[in-house]
Amino acid sequence: MSTEKLRIFVSAYACEPGLGSEIGVGWHWVLEMSKHFEVWVLTRESNRSTIEPWIMQHPEFSGIHFLYFDLPKWARFWKKGMRGVRTYYNIWQYCTNRIVKRTMRENDIKIFHHLTYGNVLWKVSSYGSKQFFVWGPVGGLETIPAEYCRHYTRKSRLIEWVRRATIKMLPINFGFKKRCRNADLILCKTEITRDLIPARYRDKSVLFTDVAVDRMTQTANATQQDNGTIEYITVGRLDAWRGFDIVIESFARAVANDKRMHLTIVGKGSDKARLASLVERLGLQEQVTFTGKVAMDEYYRLLANADVVVNASLKEGAVTVSFDTMAMGKPLICLDTTGYTRYFSNEYAVVIPRTSRKEVIAEIASAMKRLKDEKERKTIGEKAKNTGKQFLWEQRGVEYRDMLMGKIYNHDNS
Q: Which regions of 24-151 does DSSP assign to beta strands (E)?
């Protein structure tokens, strides 16, 4: 069967053009899959208003079959942004199962790919998971050591405690084990997730990150304003586990009396008050700026104007900015999460092991000091940009095509 005619049903709850994070990841995956397969994509009704105008402007992708569903407004008044997302997502999966079943049967689609959200603990279509089932890339089994959590708010500590308890209960989590059993191919974001797949199903799992380098970002204008300031930037939703407190404490050590250094924190979230309090306590108000959530154009402008990007996420996360960093030729300081960091090395980034909190802060501070040197930044940035040419979205699509076709061939001949 030719790849051009192979039909795939894709469940992509988060899928929308012009955005970052999981929503942008879902969108890029769909575009790349459509180059090799005929795809039907089920996503939220709220995404229609951005998807359809984009498709009108890019008719080469008009062959993608989009399906939309949301609960009526009166039934989802309680959901706003990320508030209530898990509950709504699980309800959405239950309600859309009939759409998956009808569409796959009417169009003779044999392959079901659950794309977003990529969390192994969250539900998937009961009908789709009984077909030839591709699951992922998925994560969600990574935890934060207690020594880091001690610095969190009570709510964030509770969230991490619940997460650790949930993962300890995996051996009796029927839904998780059922999804592992039904899946024909499990794409795992991290080694941690792959190693927690039950041993009898682990041969179906492969390491496969969900993000790549965007060619448009790679060709973006990265001209900086030379105002004598060394600009460090960190980006993401302000959740405790993303390590923004570690970045701030590291910056406090690195900055000393060097007024040339400045840190910009891009994003919004529930941890903002704690982080702002930490900045004030360390006397960094004049050298640390919180921008809140910004539009993509502003995000790219800020990234282009940065000298160094820091991603201290303690588990797989904020990978979009990491690959954008590579695309723009910026030095990256990050923690090794066993996930996307497989694509980064100390030749063109600073990859720090996730050891003790004290050691991590010292290592990030040391890297910040080292990268005050303009020549060092330029050398690392150029290597990063050249390496990024190997990790474009187009390559990710080809890797997926070859892997899936190989799996189907082995499945049909077993």
A: 38-44, 65-69, 111-116, 132-138
